[in-house]
Amino acid sequence: MAELLLVDDDADILKLLALRLATAGHRVRTADSGEQALVMFQAQRPQLVITDLKMGGMDGLALFDEIQRRAPTLPVIVLTAHGTIPEAVDATRRGVFGFLTKPFDGKALLEQVEQALRLASPAGQGGGENEPWRADLVGGSPAMQELLERARLVAASDASVFIAGASGTGKELLARAIHLASPRADKPFVAINCAAIPENLLESELFGHRKGAFTGATYNHKGLFLEADGGTVFLDEIGDMPLSLQAKLLRVLQERQVRPVGATQAVPVDVRVVSATHRDLDELLKSGQFREDLYYRLNVVSLALPLLAERREDIPLLANHFLQRTASRYGKPVTAFAPDAMEALVTAPWPGNVRQLQNVVEQAVALSPVSGGLVPAALIQGALRSGDSAFTSLDEAKKVFERDYLVRLLRLTEGSVTQAARLAQRNRTEFYKLLERHQLDAKQFKPGAGDSA
């Protein structure tokens, strides 16, 4: 049984279609306009959309464009009484799954619906959240469901994957899930944080070294690429990799072989590379801190993890998941959150994302009384105020400081960019870029700028 969304401004056609598809065993929701359908789609994502082409307001192809922007893998079938060959060609080129003209053959429609559902989810619809490969990625929100569907599809290929996401969103968990869903699942998954290893040791850690290659090299070391041979290498915080090493990594990816430090011959290696960073690679590319050729080699398929604050509907699921796991580990008899405790979790800002949520739940469980079955709001609020959970990331702190610094300069110079740039020891062009980045207008700081006309 699949969840279908039907869209048509003709009430009779809508009833007929709904009846026919419900009789075939599907759950059917209906909308009489593209605008209504989009609202329903955002509230609950269906497995297939069937829409009329010609409708007042948002037509079928405009609705398809909006759906594809939010869920690129979701199949859409377009129906029309005004079908023409150019329309059909345009629709299929844009990615519409099927195009049927009215009056349509009921059997042909059902066949196309079944084909769309079968191709859209080879692993079978329903119960996807219980699949082992994605067990650690908890979430039922449309954003996470779409992300996981894309991850499942790309996992079947051998394409390099680039994961973008703020600190604490779960980049390594997603990389591991891609590995587990891939044909390489029975081979090693090796992760390394490029920002956590000193520059002079990173090459040796990645590609290995020979005994005597440098002071302290008292044995042969395989390196992580050779350890992962046949499997997946996850390069976290790739944006922090030194330029000199970026060139060597590019050569490894192009030639599919590594040369350990101190070795005279290269060694063949077969790995799939997944990389990630919380940094803005576009900025690094512009500033010359990241190689463009390496970027395109790594970023064959891009996946973006949403902030926790952008998928608040997942917070109860995640919180209960962490609660069960932590209570079991600590031997605490807590089974749920008090209603006001859950409300505090759902409404918190979460600058540290899922990692912060996990830390807050763990602290609350650790401090829960042995006799209590519910986690009270006081423990959640205390955990939110204390420890690492109260801090933003270093990059966020830098952004806040930089904006405050610029505001103080503009106030001091009364909106004079020339004087402000001189005080900041930056040229005017660079200073204007800083203002643009923080969406600041120097004119607003000139005397009388806030006066009414």
From TrEMBL:
Keyword S-adenosyl-L-methionine found: no
Keyword line: ATP-binding, DNA-binding, Nucleotide-binding, Phosphoprotein, Transcription, Transcription regulation, Two-component regulatory system
UniProt key word Repeat: no
Signal peptide positions on this chain: none
Residues with PTM 4-aspartylphosphate: 52
GO aspect biological process, one term: regulation of DNA-templated transcription
Response regulatory domain segment(s): 3-117
Organism: Azospira oryzae (strain ATCC BAA-33 / DSM 13638 / PS)
Protein name: Response regulator with CheY-like receiver, AAA-type ATPase, and DNA-binding domains
GO molecular function term, any single one: DNA binding
InterPro entries listed in its UniProt record: AAA+_ATPase, AAA_lid_NorR, CheY-like_superfamily, Homeodomain-like_sf, P-loop_NTPase, Sig_transdc_resp-reg_receiver, Sigma_54_int, Sigma_54_int_dom_ATP-bd_2
Domain Sigma-54 factor interaction: 137-366
PROSITE patterns: RESPONSE_REGULATORY, SIGMA54_INTERACT_2, SIGMA54_INTERACT_3, SIGMA54_INTERACT_4
Pfam families assigned to the protein according to its UniProt record, in alphabetical order: AAA_lid_14, Response_reg, Sigma54_activat
